[in-house]
Amino acid sequence: MENYKITGRAGEGAHGSVFKGLDLRYNKIVALKKIAINPEQGIPKNTLREICSLRALHAKNIVKLFEVTSMGSSVMLVMEFLPCSLQEVIKCSKIDLNLPRIKTYTKMLLKGISFMHSNHIMHRDIKPANLLISPKRVLKIADLGLARIFNPEVNRLYSHQVATRWYRAPELLYGSRTYNLSVDMWSVGCIIAEMVNKVPLFPGETDIEQLAIVLSILGTPTEENWPDLKKLPDYNKIAFISSAGKRWSVILPTANIETLDLIKNILLYDGNKRLTAKEALKHSFFHQDPKLAQINDMPDPEEVISNAPTFDVKEFDEIIKEMNKT
Question: What is the superkingdom listed in this entry's lineage (predicted)?
C-alpha cells in the first residue's frame, strides 16, 4: 500500500468498503476496494471471482482493475475511480433523464453485458448501484463479486440467492438453480423501466412480495408463456391470486412505442425468449427518433455529486488516517 494514499470514502460495495485514493507514483485518482480476510478461510470466493472476472474482461463499459495488493489483513483491489452511479443519476431531481440519454445509457449497458456474455460470464447482480459513471460520462459495469462462468453445454447448478431483489428474475424467485445468462437481461429490462419512470418497477420488500408484484404487473404466468414453470423448485410452495396483468402503456405511461416494445421483449417469463444483449442492441429503440444523446450531452457526474447528500467528513477521518498508516 506504500504506492497509494486513501483520501476519502467513495461508498460501500456488496463485498467491501470502497475508498477514494491517490496513486502516488502517477498522481492519479483511483478507487480502492478493501476486503477483509478471515485468516482461517483465506480470500473470500466472491473476491476471487471478481478478480478473475475483471482480469478477463477488458472492455470500455466494464470497470478496469489495475492491481491487487494487500493492506494488513485485507486485500485491496485498485480500480479506476468512477465518481457516481446510475442510481444517483436516477435519483437526482436536477438531472433531466430524457429519452436520448436513456438510450445512450442503455446502449452502453448492453454493450458491457454483450461483451461479458460473449466471454461466458454472467454478472448476476446488475442494478443501478453497480453501474458506475466515469468522469468522461461513460457507463461501466462494476461489482462482479457474484459473477460466474456460464457454459451452456455443462449442466451446472447455481445459487438462486443472487441479484438484488428488485432486479431478480422470476425464475430465481421460484428457486431455479439451472438458469442462464438471461437473468442479467431481466435486470436490464427493470433498469430501463426505472430510468423511464424514475422509480423501481418491482419494489418488493420480501421475496414473496417481489414475486407477487411481478405477477400482478405482468400477469399470472402459464405453461404457454413459461413452459418450465411447473418444474421450478418452489412453484408449488405458494399460490397467488390470478392476475391478467396491466397494459404496458399503463405501467410506463410516458414511454413511446419503441421503448415499450424493447422492455416487454426483455421482461418475459421464459428466459429463453428474452432478448439477448446482442439482439437488444439491434432493436428499433436505438434507430428511431429521438436519436441517442452524444457523450458530451450526458449527465455530468460532478453535477450529480454536487446535488447528492454528503458524508460527514470528520466521521471518516480516523479510519482513513489509520488505514494510511498500515
Answer: Eukaryota
